[in-house]
Design brief:
Strand order of the largest sheet: 2-1-3-10
CATH architecture of the largest domain: 3-Layer(aba) Sandwich
Order of helices and strands: HEHEHEHHHEEHHEHHHEHEEEHHEHHH
Strand content: 5-15%
Number of helices: 17
Radius of gyration: 25 Å
Length: about 500
């Protein structure tokens, strides 16, 4: 009975919000706007009528515009929905399928793509530039956060070809008490990585189980520095291999500089101690501590990178601290992700949800723009800010929930790192992840002092080239690491 009541309340609340929104959108509607018409939408992974897409983006628009029927245009065969790829069969490239549909006999009016796909579709001249439409309709984009608007402009060489209504992001969280106890000033927005590393050195203390660490690329206990490092290298646009996925690109001075720096920082105790694979976990974690897996929530870490979704977990833990034996509530705040001097303000893990543009061959461009304006508008953001797990792109509705008071701007006053256009390579060569694993082994050898950074990178280049050659000569087959030079033992 309670469940039914809750659902009724939730439905009533949603309708209470939607009805004024619909009225606002239909005010001043011209007579010819009553004419029934179809708006066709496709996504780069569309399998026909997508229920999730409708719930997330179109239901409110359809309610406000009953004369416009939304039709989802499939871009992928339903047989691939649940991984129905036969042995030896190659799954079609979602982006190529979308391009094919966009230029077909029944082209979609609106298309949704991933951020990493956006530069490709723009360079192919397949999207309508939105700037003239924004100017003509005086559509306000000033309230859209830099993480979204600047990121999309960067993908279009300074021009807007799409908009995104929501996003997820990361920030640097810090434990205020640890800083106060150490007599160190709190971190600030806009700091460089080197400044954060220097702070970390001043905060690290203790040994073994009692060690307190200054910084980690993740709050997770026993995190892996090789994977965390990608947040550091992405703004520098360091790549493992070329755009064709045929040649390694790691035996360079820039890669050497990064690996040498990380090895020295590890030696200087900037990061948590390395996990010894022979011993497993280095700490005797309290089995009764429900947050043993998280160094920050276990009060063992002064600073770490978190995504917005983790805030709720920390909030709930603090609220229910009395229920968790040995847990001490954490006084915390966040600042922007550090950046490099040569890429100031660029960094963090930013994912834009619902990046949509108008097909250059749209049959109904007017309603396509009307829809994009709607889901990126002020009213839609206000409505979604109550329930969306992601952050809405309009800053005026980005406020801490549950009575919290923290520096919310840290999650959106950043610019995403340039998109990695290697997604197609990963689809075409799914085994290419093994190349990354070679680098993982080499990097750990460097951290453990078994080899120098340059020697490790040269070995990664050599073994990686051999593996890429195998993949090119025998596509679809698992490369054989045994045929390559063995990993040096030190």
């Amino acid at each position: 009975m309670k469940l039914i009541t809750r659902k009724m309340v939730a439905t009533s609340l949603t309708l209470a919000m939607v009805v004024p929104l619909a009225v606002a959108c239909t005010k001043g509607e011209k007579a010819d706007d009553k004419q029934e018409r179809v708006l066709k939408i496709a996504t780069s992974m569309g399998f026909g009528d997508d229920e999730y897409f409708r719930q997330q983006f179109t239901e409110i628009f359809e309610f406000a515009n009953p004369n416009i029927k939304i039709e989802m245009i499939p871009t992928m065969d339903d047989k691939y929905r649940y991984g129905g790829v036969q042995p030896g069969e190659k799954m079609p490239d979602p982006m190529e399928k979308l391009k094919e549909v966009m230029q077909g006999d029944n082209p979609p009016d609106v298309v949704m793509v991933g951020y990493e796909q956006l530069p490709d579709i723009i360079e192919s001249n397949m999207l309508t530039q939105l700037d003239p439409l924004i100017t003509k309709d005086k559509f306000d984009t000033t309230g859209i956060v830099p993480a979204v608007i600047d990121g999309i402009k960067n993908a279009g060489s300074g021009k807007l070809y799409a908009l995104a209504p929501t996003f997820s992001s990361s920030a640097l969280i810090y434990n205020k008490k640890m800083f106060t106890d150490a007599g160190v000033d709190f971190p600030k927005d806009g700091m460089t990585w080197d400044e954060i590393f220097d702070l970390s050195k001043r905060l690290t203390k203790g040994e073994g189980e009692n060690r307190l660490n200054g910084f980690s690329f993740s709050t997770q206990a026993q995190g892996d520095l090789f994977y965390g490092l990608q947040m550091y290298t992405a703004p520098l646009q360091l790549k493992m291999f070329d755009d064709a996925g045929e040649k390694m690109t790691v035996d360079t001075d820039q890669w050497e500089k990064v690996w040498t720096k990380m090895a020295q920082l590890q030696k200087d105790n900037v990061f948590p101690e390395l996990m010894d694979p022979q011993k497993g976990m280095n700490r005797k974690f309290d089995q009764e501590n429900p947050f043993a897996y998280d160094d920050f929530m276990s009060n063992r870490l002064a600073m770490g990178i978190i995504n917005y979704g983790q805030i709720q977990q920390i909030t709930n833990a603090n609220k229910n601290a009395a229920s968790y034996k040995g847990f001490t509530p954490i006084d915390w705040d966040v600042v922007t992700i550090p950046s490099h001097p040569e890429a100031k303000g660029v960094g963090g893990s930013i994912y834009m949800n619902g990046i949509m543009g108008i097909n250059a061959k749209a049959q109904n461009p007017e309603d396509a723009w009307k829809f994009i304006k709607f889901v990126n508008g002020d009213d839609w953001a206000k409505l979604k800010s109550y329930s969306s797990y992601n952050l809405v792109a309009r800053s005026k509705y980005l406020k801490p929930k549950d009575g919290l008071d923290f520096h919310m701007e840290a999650f959106y006053n950043v610019i995403p790192a340039p998109s990695d256009n290697n997604m197609k390579i990963y689809r075409d060569k799914p085994n290419i992840y093994q190349v990354q694993e070679i680098g993982h082994q080499m990097f750990n050898n460097v951290l453990q002092g078994k080899t120098t950074a340059r020697e490790g990178l040269k070995e990664w280049q050599t073994q990686g080239d051999a593996m890429l050659k195998q993949m090119k000569e025998n596509p679809g087959q698992m490369p054989n690491p045994m045929s390559m030079q063995a990993v040096p033992a030190g």
